[in-house]
Amino acid sequence: MQINLHQTHHEIADFEGIFKYLTLAFQQESAEGLHVFPELFLTGYPLQDLPLKKTFIDDYLSFLDDLSLWSERQLKSKNPLAILVGGLHYEFDSLGYPSQIENVIYLIEPGKKLKSLYTKQLLPNYDLYEEKKYFTPGNHSTIFRFQNKNIGLLICEDMWFSHLHDVDPVELLNEEIKKSQQKCDLVINLSASPYHLGKVESRINRALEISQFLETPFVYVNRVGAEDEILFDGHSFVVDGDSVLHQAQGFKAQILCFSFPTYVPTEKVNKRSYHSQSNSWSTIFTTRLSTDTTQLLPMGEVGCAQVLDALILGISDYAVKNNLKKFSIALSGGIDSALVLTILKLVQKKMPIEIEAIFMPGFFSSSISFDLSYDLCRNLGIKLTTLPIKFIHSTIRSAYKDNFGNELKGIADENIQSRLRGALIYLRSNDQGSAVLNTSNKSEIAVGYSTIYGDSVGALSVLGDLFKLEIFELAHFINQKYNNLIPAEIINRPPSAELRENQEDSQSLPPYEQLDPILEALLSSRFTPQDLIKKGHKADEVLKVYQLLSNSEYKRRQFCPILKVKAKSFGFGHRVPISKKNL
Hints:
Blueprint: E1 2-7, H1 15-25, E2 33-36, H2 54-73, E3 81-92, E4 98-108, E5 115-119, E6 143-146, E7 149-155, H3 169-180, E8 186-191, H4 199-214, E9 218-222, E10 224-227, E11 230-233, E12 237-240, E13 243-247, E14 254-259, H5 300-321, E15 326-331, H6 335-348, E16 354-359, H7 367-380, E17 384-386, H8 390-404, H9 410-432, E18 435-438, H10 442-447, E19 460-461, H11 468-481, H12 488-492, H13 512-523, H14 529-534, H15 539-551, H16 553-557
Parallel strand pairs: 1-2, 2-3, 7-8, 8-9, 15-16, 15-18, 16-17, 18-19
Antiparallel strand pairs: 1-14, 3-4, 4-5, 6-7, 9-12, 10-11, 12-13
């Protein structure tokens, strides 16, 4: 028997597109084997409040009727054929309101109506997940029989038992296998699992544990695509005992085809202690730090390659799904905007978009900033336009003094320069119908080292989940892979906002070598300032960073969506009150 994993890429609620995909994929009567699609393939994920919206419900139920009719009357095959797809199952109360929504696996077979086989038992309710708000959990295991094979079914979180859950679906499946007194030939997990650094490896390691525990091959199918800031990476795979048999590509739609695997016995594991020490809940508390917490661990070549693919996918999908054809980037001569522009150029190699770079010098902009911006744009083949702010800045200074009687200076004078650049880049955006990409990094966002309505503007944050040290690492990786697109001086020069004479970031913040590890430790919620001081961090630096982090929530609340590439990120999964007593 052949198994086909459909690592698909569809827009949320694109019922017409999904129906077209299925009908085209199975229009030949020669179709055969077992075809497996991701979790909630029929709707997309994450849905947030969409399952409660009347128009969504009506359209989805109509789609299910069409799908069932197609399966019953039009789907034909001369060979054994079964299709497993993730979707929603609704039940309604007497007033027509949804009383129960289940995350299920549907079975599609020729000549038969749609059949719900299994309901997801573990509903994640942490970080970016809030499934308990919408869904009702299942309460039983399912062994699906096809072609004389017994196949256990799981959905995403079901493979990640933790103390948050009352039941362990893997244990329940094992008990069901024992009760049936039949061998389980395969376990399949339908997933919609977002990406973060290290996630691919953790999925495989967990699957290997389950494969050994149940003594059966384990199949995992995952979706691909960017849904605003949430990135799905694919990387579907098949494991057997202690081996990875097959793996799909990352960040690309693909159909992974293989013959039904046969379990090869490996060394027995203790079935009472098969649970992994880390699970999907605990990953948000992990850190990418050295043991003494003083160093941020590098992403490495594999990590950089994955993150770059993730960011390219994030920008590409955002453009396609929001019908964006043009992009405007505010170029400063610094590393952050240079990296965003370079990544956008890599996106342009995959899809037709227009890109423009705009350099907006002020009184304190150095000539080297223009020269480096020009060199970068020449390397990338992008036109650079200069739009000075110094004359508008001078007019505002004069008007301020005339009306308020004192000089515009200090932080107010610095911030107005940033806000002028934000206003001008959006002037161009409005005039040309272009989208602005934000160029801030995670270090800046964490400590509020940005100007609200200034350099914090943008439709989408590309680098907002990468610390400054990781920005440098990714820039070096791109230069190695793409023949030094980014001028070396941009990477090597001291970071500066150039909002006052001879300004450097290190005048306002600890060096990034100290700042980034402190932020990573604090954001994981596993360390207090006192913990970090005991580990050798300078007390004044830790307390300053902690204060800046706590006081910047109001800025982050008004920030644009951030492409998520870490286990714990700002944005969708970070919910902290603005008004609170400092802890």
